[in-house]
């Protein structure tokens, strides 16, 4: 897969995509990530990319010409063009999964007061928001989308199964994780995780994920895929009962 990030501030995105898992995935050719300077697609002596809004008002607006020129130069058949915008649909794990199956994703980072509306009307396929707050630019949102999408591409995560157990992947939040030491400041890691009994561990993890989701994001349980035993358990949570060991034996 290829992801192109179109921005006026390339240095804001270059460093993070060269680090850690993304950097290694790029180096191994598992994913291509391009950083495109919008100014390269502006014309005229001063390569102007923004202008005053028609009708007045504070701030500047990104002009349509450089954005159209950049996308027209980059776009390959099947590419999806996404504008990062607080007015867009809310980015989720499900959308990350959908985008990870594309061959080419072009992310447009807005700046200032935003982007000329004709970009939304005639250039982009989708608009995504990373949440109900306003940032100074689309670079951080583009990095967030890139990171979430890239880690779902085949081979990017060392452990192929890791993403399957993440929060939201199964419609639930992930349960607690522990590592060495077994005991820290009087707090012991749960015995079941040290038991080596993989079936029991899987059961415990599922139970913890259900319980945590119930406590923190109960609305996720409305759409999560649950077995009849798990549905019964959630009913018990609703009636005020917490998780107990007996469920692990029956599930
Ligand atoms: N005036 C715009 C509004 O009220 O909707 C906000 C513009 S914001 C200061 C500048 C750019 O940052 C936007 O064009 C967008 O690319 C990006 N941006 C800011 N917040 C965002 C968010 N929550 N999600 C996605 N992009 C965002």
Question: Topology, please?
Answer:
Blueprint: E1 2-7, H1 10-17, H2 20-27, E2 32-37, E3 50-51, E4 61-62, H3 64-74, E5 80-90, H4 93-100, E6 104-109, H5 117-122, E7 126-129, H6 139-150, E8 183-184, E9 187-188, H7 191-194, H8 198-216, H9 228-238, H10 245-250
Parallel strand pairs: 1-2, 1-6, 5-6, 5-7
Antiparallel strand pairs: 3-4, 8-9
Helix pairs in contact: 1-6, 4-6
The structure holds S-adenosylmethionine.
What characteristics describe this protein?
single chain, 251 residues, alpha/beta, Alpha/beta knot, Trp Operon Repressor, Chain A, five-stranded parallel β-sheet, two-stranded antiparallel ribbon, 9 strands, 37% helix, 16% strand, binds S-adenosylmethionine
Helix-and-strand structural type: alpha/beta
Number of helices: 10
Shape: elongated
Distance between the termini: 39 Å
Beta-strand proportion: 15-25%
Going by CATH, the architecture of the largest domain would be 3-Layer(aba) Sandwich
* Helical residue percent band: 25-40%
Bound molecules: S-adenosylmethionine
Give the number of domains. Answer: 2
Query: What's the count of strands?
Result: 9
CATH class of the largest domain: Alpha Beta
Q: Low-confidence parts lasting 5 or more residues at pLDDT below 50?
A: none
Side-by-side strand order of the widest sheet: 2-1-6-5-7
What characterizes the major β-sheet? 5 strands, parallel
User: What's the CATH H-level superfamily name of the largest domain?
Assistant: SPOUT methyltransferase, trefoil knot domain
Q: Give the overall average pLDDT.
A: 95
Q: Radius of gyration in whole Å, from Cα?
A: 23 Å
Classify the fold: give the CATH topology of the largest domain: Alpha/beta knot
Query: What is the H/E string?
Result: EHHEEEHEHEHEHEEHHHH
